[in-house]
Write a structure and sequence with these properties.
The chain is α/β, with parallel strands linked by helices. Helices cover 42% and strands 22% of the residues. It folds into two domains: 96 residues, P-loop containing nucleotide triphosphate hydrolases (Rossmann fold, 3-Layer(aba) Sandwich); 230 residues, 3-Layer(aba) Sandwich (Rossmann fold), CATH 3.40.50. A hairpin with a 2-residue loop joins strand 5 and strand 6. The longest helix has 18 residues.
Length: 379
């Protein structure tokens, strides 16, 4: 996409969240390429992002906007060290949320377990003998680079892609490989919140229809009972029913759309929810609100989460345990406190060291370190 934009040698190029959906190791390469292009071609660039650490690496100057109004503008280093306005300081101070870990309950079997799961797309093996367990009432984060097998794991659990070998157990019993072969109650108990709320919601349906469908399908609610439950669901996700029931998705903000996706999953009254990159498209203040909401719902309802993400700050905030995947294999797993404490598995160390920092020189140092490692291996 960057090459396409540069093909006509523009004087100005606008980068609109170009690394939002990328894992941290891929993001470094893309950021380095963009920075080199801007420098080498003397191109003016506007870089739009909600990721403050990326701002620190890419921008010469920073302009902060709030509801269509400029809050402040300053050189990047000045903005990082001494933001003037309260709103800017609030952006710099986010990620304070840390969920209290949920203590494991005895030696109970996991609510969901993968045993030797192997999945292929044609001749390409995407998952290879993957085993993991997710205890009831806890949150397990699954992390790794793009192509590591995270999303395929979710698809296998949901019954969207049948495994070539191994099995998925839910509540101690094997799940039918295909979702269409599972009864309605099993489908109800396992739900998924998708990454892109924009495409996960039907743009032609109003919120009452989007949430009403699972209430009718899974709970058999109609008429006044359905309407009452709709209002309860919106209140649970902290949206005012009278303001939102008759809106279309296009009339919602990104965070509001994601809350509706959460409510749609809750409408089935599930036991287990797969959260697939649910905060990656959101700014950090809105993302923190979503994490707090998910934490509250888990404690109130006893939900179990599998949290797929490439955002390691989110992992620290929300997860009880972490599973690290690479190339279709589980390479590291354990309690969050252990995974983030040295000594690390080499691949886990690579992921942790690739998380951008609020330091304008961080990317330059990381690229120099990588170049040094390549020279050492070559020699």
């Amino acid at each position: 996409m960057t090459a396409m934009a540069m093909a006509c040698r523009p004087d100005l190029i606008i980068f609109d969240e170009p690394t939002t959906a990328l894992d941290v190791t891929t993001q470094i390469e893309v950021l380095a390429a963009i920075r080199a292009i801007v420098r080498d071609h003397h191109t003016a660039a506007i870089y739009i992002t909600h990721d403050l650490a990326v701002v620190a690496q890419m921008a010469d100057r920073v302009k902060v906007l709030l509801r269509g109004t400029e809050v402040e503008e300053a050189p990047t280093r000045e903005m990082l060290s001494a933001p003037r306005e309260a709103y800017t300081r609030s952006l710099w101070a986010v990620r304070e949320f840390r969920r209290e870990p949920v203590a494991p309950v005895g030696a109970e079997p996991p609510l969901l377990e993968l045993q030797g799961l192997t999945v292929s797309y044609g001749p390409l093996k995407v998952l290879d003998n993957v085993s993991l367990g997710i205890p009831k009432g806890r949150t397990v984060a699954v992390v790794g680079e793009s192509g590591s097998g995270k999303s395929t794991t979710a698809r296998a659990i949901m019954g969207l892609v049948p495994p070539r070998a191994g099995k998925v157990l839910f509540d101690g019993k094997p799940l039918p490989p295909r979702g269409s072969d599972r009864g309605r109650d099993l489908q109800r108990r396992i739900q998924m919140i998708h990454q892109m709320a924009d495409t996960a919601l039907n743009p032609r349906h109003r919120i009452r229809d989007i949430l009403g469908r699972p209430l009718e399908f899974f709970r058999g609610l109609k008429g006044a009972a359905r309407d009452a439950r709709l209002r309860e669901l919106l209140s649970e996700i902290e949206l005012e029913p009278d303001q939102f029931l008759d809106r279309l998705p296009s009339e919602l903000s990104g965070g509001q759309k994601q809350r509706i996706c959460i409510a749609r999953a809750l409408a089935a009254e599930p036991d287990f929810i797969i959260c697939d990159e649910v905060t990656s498209a959101l700014d950090q203040l809105v993302a923190e609100g979503i994490l707090r909401l998910l934490d509250r719902l888990q404690r109130e309802r006893g939900l179990t989460y599998m949290f797929i993400t490439h955002d390691l700050a989110t992992v620290r905030a929300i997860a009880d345990e972490v599973v690290v995947m690479q190339g279709g294999h589980v390479v590291d797993a354990g309690p969050t406190s252990r995974i983030f404490q040295p000594p690390h598995d080499p691949y886990t160390e690579l992921l942790l060291s690739s998380v951008p920092e609020l330091d304008a020189d961080w990317l330059t140092r990381r690229l120099a370190e990588r170049a040094g490692h390549k020279l050492e291996r070559a020699s």
